[in-house]
Amino acid sequence: MRFFARLREQSGTETEALQVQPGATLEDVYGVLRRKHPALESDRKAVRGAINQEVSDWSAVVADGDEVAFIPPVSGGR
Q1: How many domains does the chain have?
Q2: Residue 44 pairs with which residues in a beta bridge?
Q3: DSSP 3-state of 1
Q4: Best label site of 19, 50, 55, 67, fewest CB within 10 Å?
Q5: Beta bridge mates, 70
């Protein structure tokens, strides 16, 4: 896991190892992270998820060994 910009500040960390169930989606992963770090952005429209440095849909399945990152909008807009 990698967090960028304000998400890094909200979580209190830049990187974190996380294990999820097989078949977990980006949405599932972010849900687990929100439970661990309640200060993380609750509005998913204000967050983009990426798998292996490629922006992905929330429904994308995360595989073992994937690098997952969550990034707020670059321009600050929604």
Answers
A1: 1
A2: none
A3: coil
A4: 19
A5: 3, 49
pTM of the model: 0.83
CB-based contact 29:66 (threshold 8 Å): no
* Beta strands at 48-51 and 2-3: parallel, antiparallel or unpaired: unpaired
Two structure tokens written together for 55: 């922006």
Supply the range of the domain harboring residue 27.
Answer: 2-71
Angle 55-29-41 from CA coordinates, rounded to 5°: 75
Residue recorded with tokens 């439970």: 35
What are the CA-CA distances from residue 70 to residues 14, 17, 30, 38 (Å)? 10, 14, 8, 15
φ, ψ for residue 70, nearest 5 deg: -125, 130
CATH code of the domain containing 22: 3.10.20.30
SS3 65: coil
pLDDT band at 77 (very low <50, low <70, confident <90, very high): very low
